[in-house]
Write a structure and sequence with these properties.
The complex is a heterodimer of chains A (133) and B (121).
Chain A lengths: L1 H20 L4 H10 L5 H25 L5 H24 L2 H30 L7
Helix pairs in contact in A: 1-2, 2-3
Chain B lengths: L8 H17 L4 H10 L5 H25 L5 H22 L4 H20 L1
Helix pairs in contact in B: 1-2, 1-3, 2-3
Classes of the chains: A mainly alpha (133), B mainly alpha (121).
């Protein structure tokens, strides 16, 4: 019962964060399932995707209502994404779980550093441009 | 705001890279698409978030199908997380329209760094 509440709570918190950043939440689901709930890396990734898919549908509807979707970009990115996803998942499923976990952790850490650096610069760039967005 | 007309090369390259990352790491790929849209295609953060979410719908469907066919999906747990996610996604979309972009990015990057280091060690 506590575990059930934990999974529901994870979904709520992660998706709130993820939707506001325009991502599917996998970046939060995968490490949480592995580190806190003890999932195998592959199972964590597959389960993450099964949550990400319906979640991004909901997020897309919400963003579209706020006119925050540029469809002319979303469609080609999404179609190319399907091809890439089939290639990437085939590679992942052939890798050892321990290696995949370390690769994922490295990817996350690198991403975090880049994101911090970008956020640092964001203020300087956005201030002189008060025009409509 | 800058918009992009007619040029499909950049979106296709961005989508391909994001798709590989999505399939390889079990994420949606927004971590690639959002910065790509902001830095490469000139969208503001909020619009990049929405555009990315829409692009991830087909991408995540393909990756999910691959993992599902190999038995690497715990559907019960996914369903439980999803119950919370449906509510959380709406809250997040509402927040994205109101929160300071810089604060959001810094807070999120700190979370990612902590999780990443733990998984490598």
């Amino acid at each position: 019962m506590l575990e059930v509440a934990g999974f529901i709570g994870l979904g709520l918190i992660a998706a709130a964060f993820a939707a506001s950043m325009g991502i599917g939440g996998g970046i939060i689901f995968v490490p949480t399932l592995v580190v806190i709930f003890g999932f195998d890396q592959h199972l964590a990734q597959g389960t993450s995707l099964a949550v990400v898919f319906p979640t991004v549908i909901v997020a897309t509807i919400a963003h579209a209502r706020l006119k925050n979707v540029e469809w002319r970009l979303s469609i080609p990115i999404g179609l190319a994404g399907v091809v890439g996803a089939l290639v990437g998942s085939r590679i992942a499923l052939q890798l050892d779980a321990d290696l995949l976990r370390r690769m994922f952790g490295t990817f996350l850490a690198l991403l975090a550093v880049r994101m911090m650096w970008r956020a640092w610069k964001l203020k300087d760039r956005s201030e002189p441009e008060p025009g409509p967005s | 705001m800058r918009t992009v007309n007619g040029n499909l090369i950049k979106p296709i390259i961005l989508g391909s890279i994001a798709g590989i990352v999505a399939g390889l790491f079990g994420v949606g790929g927004g971590v690639i698409v959002v910065p790509g849209l902001v830095l490469w295609l000139g969208l503001v953060q909020r619009r990049a978030s929405g555009t990315s979410a829409a692009a991830i719908v087909p991408t995540s469907a393909a990756a999910m199908a691959s993992f599902g066919l190999s038995g690497s999906v715990d559907w019960r747990v996914a369903g439980l997380i999803l119950i919370g996610s449906v509510v959380g996604a709406w809250i997040g979309a509402w927040l994205a329209h109101r929160l300071n972009e810089r604060v959001l990015a810094i807070a999120f990057s700190i979370l990612l760094l902590v999780a990443g280091v733990r998984m490598v060690l």
